[in-house]
């Protein structure tokens, strides 16, 4: 068999066929086939197009052998999308997999010779094992704490930590699941013991064991390196230390590596992801070709401008002296569109109702429901929007809910399509694929017109309609020869990869779940302090990641973008919420409130002036920095003896009151006091963190400490 699938007959040259539709930067990526390459690709700049055309050009020109190239990405959906594009380019036999899928395939092959026996079963979910591990230690847990412990153990393993060194390396990570780090280390060890007793391994073990075998067995390592000569890694900003180590072992000192990523889209650091490998690529490979993709083909100039302005206020995403940490400035390629809308609402209920009204307006204007998304910071925010859309008679799908291919109507449809394949072959039916699929799924409830009712009937119809639409799309992209057997095979492959077709319905999703997706219209909701950035983002680094998360949300929108927040949680509640600091300088000087509850406009609010460091002028990212008025990188201006005296006083005051020290004054407030050195109660009252009650309780004592430290 030939190494490549033939492209459709075309009199143009190979270069014209594969490279002809690319812009200058994409073309450079696709035509530079050897040596290390780093592609810094902004949101919507066509990175997947560039790297799939690079692979296709390399294979068709004979530089790459398709069986010896491995393309790696981070989600099964992204890998399936890449395989689909490669197949359309005539190189469907190139391997495109996730890190885990590639490692598992190698582990299944090499386990008998490297370890012996049968590969242990793969654990789908950790919860049950972690619960048992905690019970062995007589620790009380609930569902939330087990989830947090599972996340912490996953972070530890991808960071290449063991139960033995976890405690040393995990300092500063708080109390996962409500347990101190010593208890977490014990649960970690107990969890590993439970897995050993049950003869199972988890997903992180797949990578760890593969790394171990490649490090310890030269023959296995040589076989893998002979199999794969060229590597492409997408979303390289998301690699963990463990994945990076596996990649290095695959390479074995070679440099035939192309990586693609954007440090401004690093939003998974809590899972161990780090952009340092992307930002340090040029240092590791001095001869690397570096290409920046900045032409944004996804979003209108108005959306792109907002995204650029948001990142302009961020702190460095990497080493301060590293120019690579500077955010990419996107250049819009689409025609102008509507200006992004900012809306302040009186409460969460009003905000959800306002969004439902605007969604209905978009639907009535012709925007398909599948091209509208409502994105929020936490999954707990979804309920209000589910209720508001349901009340408005608008269908929706909650991303992260039941998997498409697990739905009963989808499984039944695939069974009927498979059963019909033989009958169609025997009758040599000339009927087009799209009509065949419509006829077959009609018995399951599909009709050309959507049902007027909602609920389960509508959801079932939407699933079947998605299959019909997919059949129509594939006939167009694969050609008229694409028949029912091909469609059934495609569905089987997509089912294994969980690559679901588009379902008609407004998408509700968290910002993290929206990564890699795009819609014509996007609603970014709940943009108030405490939710964006989230309340537990208490360091400059974590606040910067929250900013990047909002950037990802903004860049999901092609044309329509709506940003909203509410001033109170519940109707009639105290209006003590403020819009996210990230919107400072982005939203207009005043924002008209839109209340679907008929309460009229909210008071006009001036845009807050971004707080900046009084030493270097850098924008302050955290509440602690704002209290002090200085960024964490600039040295403090207080005298050590003054600060030490205040800390000792706080310690004594906390002991007397039998409360933790921070209840008296936080470190940030204490620092602000030491640096400002107020000499009166009026001056002390002006400092952030010193409210009326604390002024009355501690004011005189603080002034006395300051006066005494001055005379020392």
Q: What can you tell me about this protein's structure?
A:
- This protein is α/β, with parallel strands linked by helices.
- It is 47% helix and 10% strand.
- The strands form four sheets. A six-stranded parallel beta sheet has the order 3-2-6-7-1-8, with helices on both faces.
- α5 (99-114) crosses α10, α16 (348-364) packs across α17 (382-391) and α19 (433-441) runs antiparallel to α20.
- The longest helix has 24 residues, at 455-478.
- It is globular and about 100 Å long.
Helix count, DSSP H or I runs of 4 or more residues: 28
Residue share in helices?
40-55%
Strand order of the largest sheet: 3-2-6-7-1-8
Total beta strands: 16
Summarize the model shown.
With 712 residues, the chain is an alpha/beta fold. The strands form 4 sheets. Strands 3-2-6-7-1-8 form a 6-stranded parallel β-sheet, sandwiched between helices. A 6-stranded parallel β-sheet has the order 11-16-15-12-14-13, sandwiched between helices.
List keywords for this structure.
six-stranded parallel beta sheet; 10% strand; 28 helices; alpha/beta; single chain; 712 residues; disordered N terminus
């Amino acid at each position: 068999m030939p190494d490549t699938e033939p492209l459709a007959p075309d009199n143009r040259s190979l270069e014209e066929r594969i490279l002809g539709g690319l812009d200058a930067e994409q073309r450079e990526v696709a035509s530079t086939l050897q040596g290390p390459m780093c592609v810094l690709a902004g949101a919507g700049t066509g990175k997947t197009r560039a790297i799939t055309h690079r692979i296709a050009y390399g294979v068709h020109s004979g530089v790459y052998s398709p069986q010896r190239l491995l393309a790696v990405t981070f989600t099964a959906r992204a890998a399936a999308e890449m395989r689909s594009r490669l197949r359309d380019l005539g190189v469907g036999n190139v391997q495109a997999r996730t890190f885990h899928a590639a490692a598992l395939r190698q582990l299944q092959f090499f386990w008998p010779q490297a370890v012996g026996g049968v590969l242990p079963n793969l654990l789908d979910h950790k919860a049950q094992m972690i619960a048992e591990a905690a019970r062995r230690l007589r620790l009380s847990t609930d569902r939330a704490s087990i989830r947090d412990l599972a996340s912490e153990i996953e972070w530890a393993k991808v960071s290449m930590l063991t139960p033995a060194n976890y405690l040393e390396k995990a300092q500063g990570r708080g109390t996962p699941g409500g347990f101190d780090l010593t208890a977490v280390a014990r649960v970690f060890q107990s969890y590993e013991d439970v897995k050993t007793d049950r003869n199972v391994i988890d997903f992180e073990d797949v990578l760890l064991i593969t790394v171990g075998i490649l490090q310890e067995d030269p023959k296995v390592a040589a076989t893998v390196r002979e199999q794969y000569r060229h590597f492409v890694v997408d979303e390289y900003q998301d690699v963990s230390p463990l994945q990076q180590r596996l990649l290095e072992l695959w390479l074995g000192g070679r440099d035939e590596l192309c990586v693609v990523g954007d440090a401004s889209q690093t939003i998974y650091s809590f899972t161990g992801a780090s952009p340092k490998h992307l930002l340090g690529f040029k240092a590791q490979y001095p001869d690397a070709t570096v290409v920046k993709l900045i032409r944004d083909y996804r979003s209108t100039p108005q959306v792109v401008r907002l995204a650029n302005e948001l990142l302009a206020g961020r702190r460095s995403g990497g080493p301060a002296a590293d120019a690579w940490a500077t955010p990419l400035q996107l250049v819009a390629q689409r025609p102008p569109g509507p200006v992004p809308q900012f809306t302040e609402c009186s409460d969460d209920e009003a905000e959800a109702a306002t969004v439902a009204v605007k969604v209905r307006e978009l639907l009535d204007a012709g925007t398909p429901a599948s091209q509208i998304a409502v994105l929020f910071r936490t999954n707990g925010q979804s309920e209000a929007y589910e209720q508001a859309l349901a009340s408005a008679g608008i269908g929706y799908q909650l991303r992260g809910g039941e998997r498409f291919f697990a739905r009963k109507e989808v499984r039944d449809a695939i069974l009927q399509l498979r059963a019909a394949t033989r009958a169609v072959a025997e009758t040599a039916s000339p009927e087009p694929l799209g009509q065949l699929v419509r006829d077959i799924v009609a018995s399951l409830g599909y009709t050309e017109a959507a049902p007027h009712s909602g609920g389960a009937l509508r959801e079932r119809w939407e699933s079947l309609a998605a299959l019909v639409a997919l059949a129509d799309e594939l006939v167009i992209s694969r050609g008229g020869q694409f028949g029912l057997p091909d469609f059934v095979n495609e569905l089987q492959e997509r089912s294994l990869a969980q690559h679901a077709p588009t379902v008609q319905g407004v998408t509700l999703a968290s910002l993290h779940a929206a990564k890699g997706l795009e819609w014509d219209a996007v609603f970014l909701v709940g943009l108030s302090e405490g939710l964006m950035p989230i309340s537990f983002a208490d360091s400059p680094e974590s606040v910067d990641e929250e900013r990047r998360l909002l950037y990802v949300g903004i860049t999901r929108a092609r044309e329509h973008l709506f940003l909203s927040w509410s001033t109170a949680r519940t109707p009639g509640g105290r209006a003590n919420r403020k819009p996210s600091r990230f919107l400072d300088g982005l939203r207009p000087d005043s924002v008209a409130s839109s209340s679907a509850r008929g309460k009229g406009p909210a008071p006009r609010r001036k845009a807050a002036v971004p707080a900046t460091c009084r030493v270097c002028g850098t924008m302050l990212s955290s509440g602690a920095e704002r209290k002090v008025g200085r960024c964490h990188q600039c040295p403090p201006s207080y005298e050590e003896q003054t600060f030490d005296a205040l800390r000792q006083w706080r310690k004594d005051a906390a002991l007397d009151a039998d409360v933790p020290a921070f209840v008296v004054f936080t470190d940030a407030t204490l620092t602000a006091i030491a640096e400002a050195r107020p000499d009166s109660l009026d001056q002390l009252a002006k400092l952030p963190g010193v409210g009326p009650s604390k002024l009355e309780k501690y004011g005189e004592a603080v002034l006395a400490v300051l006066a005494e430290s001055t005379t020392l």
